[in-house]
Amino acid sequence: MVIGLLVRGGLVAGAVYYTNKVGIWGDSQQTEQLYNNVKSELCPYVTKAKKQLPFDVPQLPNTGEMRFLAKHYYNEGVKGSIRFVHMLPCYAGRGIKKVKDTFEDFAKSPAITGSQDAGSPAKQ
């Protein structure tokens, strides 16, 4: 468990370090330059893939659209996280009730099946 936590922490730290180094967390000009560099590097591969695909591939969004989409999805992620934290007591209460009910069901003796007269001979 501890090793897994250390590995995940190392991966997150490495991802943050790398994204900081390439300029994602820098100012907007630096991030825009990075986006344009990535777009220009991917252009030959995209055109090669377009020729091989049987359908039309849409163009990459321009910088303004990308900013809008990034802000929109970031805000949706924050809203979803806040909604989850807001509902956490409700979720915890439901989970505890479900666990309690399950343990109560296990604590009950099993129901007796069949009739009580099964051992006596049938009257004719």
Our count of helices gives 3
Overall geometric form: elongated
Low-confidence stretches: none
**Number of DSSP strand runs:** 0
- The fraction of residues in strands falls at under 5%
Helix content: over 70%
Classification by helices and strands = mainly alpha
- Count up the domains: 2
* Mean pLDDT rating: 83
| Radius of gyration based on Cα positions | 30 Å
Q: N-to-C SSE series?
A: HHH
C-alpha termini separation:
69 Å
What composes the largest sheet? none
What would you say this structure looks like, in words?
- InterPro entries: Mic13 (IPR026769).
- It is found in: Mitochondrion inner membrane.
- Helices cover 73% and strands 0% of the residues.
- With 124 residues, it is mainly α.
- It folds into two domains: 1-54; 61-108.
- The mean pLDDT is 83.
Annotation keywords:
transmembrane, single chain, mainly alpha, 0% strand, 3 helices, MICOS complex subunit MIC13, 2 domains, 124 residues
Q: Could you give a quick summary of the protein structure above?
A:
With 124 residues, the chain is mainly α. The protein has 3 helices and no strands.
